[in-house]
Write a structure and sequence with these properties.
single chain, alpha/beta, 6-stranded mixed sheet, 3-stranded mixed sheet, 15 helices, binds guanosine-5'-triphosphate, binds magnesium ion
């Protein structure tokens, strides 16, 4: 399962966001380092397409795609040198697939710490970059030595030197437009800042109107159009407090609260969806009376690999996939009717599955 790690300064609202996303009960408290050990939970990926297919099929069960969320303790200035609980927290970040930077913009005299999200961003980015710089420099020495005996590691040395130049300016690599070839060469070193980043700006509950401006400020810094960050960074503003309160309510109470605040479906579904897309993840569906289910796959995966997400036998014995796009199926109203109308396509092992495909796998083992 893909993992997102919540990263930021103390009191930014990471544990509050974690609770809202996972229904967890991590300690959220107005003092720094409330979180000492990482909290790990599961968040489902909300998907209205899935809900609609489940209704169409009168499914007994609806199974959402899920992602893992890790709430990591607060980083402080000097974390890369072991300040605070620095080293321990940095080690937790190495284990996630994408970083969610939680940047505080709310002012509250009872909650210590700065409330300028750009300051949060500056401190966190420097610590992440310095931690990577340390890794790169120690690996560089070793790799350069190895390169004297083995010419094939020359490319790795070059990639490390390019990374070092960028990091020594205190700049994270997700802003550097690192080529895929370099990313592959750097992968064995488990750097922190080669990961994709979603920045969440935590805006005060009575300043929701400021969200667009806050998002624009952070985007202008992190991911201006035409910059390297444009493709590896997303920015999303929300009031974590309100989202957390709404998340505690059930069903129509939640919908009513969010609607009364003008928040639509709320920011959490959008957040999970954009993190999901940032990682190049896509969804296909299976639907029937027993269950309607969303399955996660990587963009570009072919039909047998997707079949393997359901069961390894289906990949091993893959014959073909019967498929139709979810919206076309919904318009027709049922799988059997779609079949009668000749709208179900038959695809072979070279078919690249598309986000929103509804599949039935034929296999034989
Ligand atoms: N007013 C206000 N308070 C908030 C908001 N978000 C979080 N808080 C409060 O800020 C305090 C810190 O929140 P946490 O979620 O514990 O912050 P954290 O980032 O996990 O902090 P550490 O674990 O210490 O790194 C708590 O008392 C929260 O209730 C918000 O949007 N508005
Ligand atoms: Mg916390």
């Amino acid at each position: 399962m893909e993992r997102f790690g919540l990263v930021g300064l103390p009191n930014a609202g990471k544990s509050s966001l974690y609770n809202a996303l996972t229904g967890g009960d991590a300690l959220a408290a107005p003092y720094p380092f409330a979180t000492k050990d990482p909290n790990i939970g599961v968040a489902r990926v909300p998907d209205p397409r899935l809900d609609a297919l489940a209704v169409m099929s009168h499914s007994q069960k609806t199974v959402y795609a899920t992602v893992e969320v890790v709430d990591i303790g607060g980083l402080v200035e000097g974390a890369s040198k072991g300040e605070g609980l620095g080293n321990k927290f940095l080690a937790s970040i190495r284990e996630v697939d994408a970083i969610v930077l939680v940047l505080r913009a709310f002012v509250d005299d009872d909650v210590a710490g700065p409330s300028d999200p750009l300051e949060h961003l500056r401190v966190v980015e420097i610590e992440l970059a310095l931690a990577d710089l340390e890794t790169v420099e120690s690996r560089l020495k070793r790799t350069q030595k190895a390169a004297r005996m083995d010419k094939t590691v020359a490319a790795e040395v070059e990639a490390l030197i390019r990374a070092q130049a960028w990091l020594s300016e205190g700049r994270p690599l997700y802003r550097a437009g690192v080529s895929q070839a370099d990313l592959d060469l750097l992968a064995p070193h488990f750097l922190l800042t080669t990961r994709r980043v979603l920045a969440v700006v935590n805006v005060a509950e009575d300043e929701l109107a400021e969200i667009p401006e806050m998002e624009a400020r952070i985007r202008a810094e992190l991911a201006p159009p035409g910059s390297a960050g444009e493709h590896s960074v997303e920015v999303l503003g929300m009031s974590v407090q309100l989202e957390a309160e709404a998340a505690q309510l059930i069903g129509s109470d939640r919908t009513e609260m969010l609607e009364a605040l003008g928040l639509g479906e709320g920011a959490l579904p959008r957040m999970v969806r954009s993190a999901y897309h940032l990682l190049g993840l896509r969804t296909f569906f299976t639907t029937g009376e027993k269950e309607t289910r969303a399955w996660t796959f990587r963009a570009g995966a072919k039909a047998p690999e997707c079949a393997g997400r359901i069961h390894t036998d289906m990949q091993r014995g893959f014959i073909r996939a019967d498929m139709i796009a979810w919206d076309e199926l919904l318009k027709i109203g049922s799988w059997n009717k779609a079949k009668d109308l000749g709208k179900i396509r038959v695809e072979g092992k070279d078919y690249e599955v598309v986000d929103g495909d509804t599949l039935e796998i034929r296999f034989n083992v």
